[in-house]
Automatic annotation (TrEMBL), chains A, B:
Gene3D superfamilies: 3.40.50.2020
CDD domains assigned: PRTases_typeI
Top-level taxon of the source organism: Bacteria
The protein's name: Xanthine phosphoribosyltransferase
Length: 215, 215
């Protein structure tokens, strides 16, 4: 197990409905030393990429992105989420479906902060069905910038987001991939990333995101 | 002028209605080196305080808080904002009025992350009428923890939040206090913090926050 998997086993809490609570160190209270370790690891995994900007999405992605950014010596842009938008033409906007909240959210980035010269690393805390992440990718592509890679803290490997995004050809690096959880025993099964992909999600039913970039 | 005031003059944009846009370096795109300088300065100003936790509020406070936290070697807790709440008893909740959005927001922190043993530094990007900040203070006090200080990037000195909070006896340190702005000329007037307070806000009409901690 790596440092993040060890921490998840130590302090994560498995709840009914495939919920993994990591709010004591990742997304409500944040262990800054852990985020710093994550930054060093992402720097190692994306060492050969000409990254000049990190993009994340509010709220819990921001803390991770800012600490990771210190390892790359680049600025962070965070996308804003809003149910209602006032399209004033200076914004890139992607529509993103939220399965959790059963609604459509808008993901918004000011156009001036993404240009064709930008080489972007996308950072977020969680990846499940990947809808928000697909919205961020669409926004980067709309701007003419390049997605150099995607760094995720915890991927729910039994949902389809990771597979879809890897199939699109992106370098997606998740520090911990959870392939299964048992709320009764508290047991968590991590994917062994040193081996070939186990294709354990092949049987998962795809939650296809209905999303589109708005002009 | 200090480093933040210089940056505001260089890259801030004054808009009609006393709006100061700093989204190119502070609250949409974030200059991580600048945040790091802010962290060093807050550490200097709160050097004698036994701070063991930083509290902030989503979204734009999170990035600053996480970088500042590295200078104090402490974890960050961020309060969540929500218009609707599901009070399950494990949360501290303060009602906060938003003058901008003309609504009541709830500021929420899980009880397990604030205890009477905690010595808290509150960090945020902006201070204007101070309603959100008063909500955070209420939450810390509800938990029995101690507010050791408050660190703000930019205070609007012509609004009453700063004065109210200093009058309550808190050590409030704002790295830049804007006492006036001119949207036509783009000019920004900073308070000289080396002198005694100018009481320039005495004439400002107080926007008293109607807020309360919910049990």
């Amino acid at each position: 197990m790596n440092f993040l998997e060890e921490r998840i086993v130590k302090d994560g809490v498995v709840k009914e409905g495939n919920v993994l609570k990591v709010d004591s160190f990742l997304n409500h209270q944040m262990d800054i030393k852990l985020l710093d370790q994550m930054g060093a690891e992402f720097k190692r995994r994306f060492a050969d990429k000409p990254i000049n900007k990190i993009l994340t999405i509010e709220a819990s992605g921001i803390g991770i992105a800012c600490v990771v950014a210190q390892h790359f010596n680049v600025p962070v842009v965070f996308a804003k989420k809003s149910q209602s938008i006032n399209l004033d033409g200076d914004m890139y906007v992607a529509e993103v479906e939220s399965f959790t909240h059963k609604c459509i959210n808008h993901v918004i980035v000011a156009q001036k902060f993404l240009t064709p010269e930008d080489h972007v690393l996308i950072i977020d805390d969680f990846l499940a069905n990947g809808c928000a992440l697909q919205g961020l990718i669409q926004i980067v592509q709309s701007s003419g910038a390049t997605v150099e890679g995607i760094g995720i803290a915890i991927e729910k490997g039994f949902q389809s987001g990771g597979r879809i995004i890897r199939n699109l050809g992106f370098q997606l690096e998740s520090l911990a991939i959870v392939d299964g959880m048992n709320a009764e025993t508290g047991e968590i099964q991590f994917r062994d990333q040193s081996k070939t992909e186990l294709n354990s999600v092949e049987k998962a039913e795809d939650e296809i995101c209905r999303s589109a970039t708005l002009d």
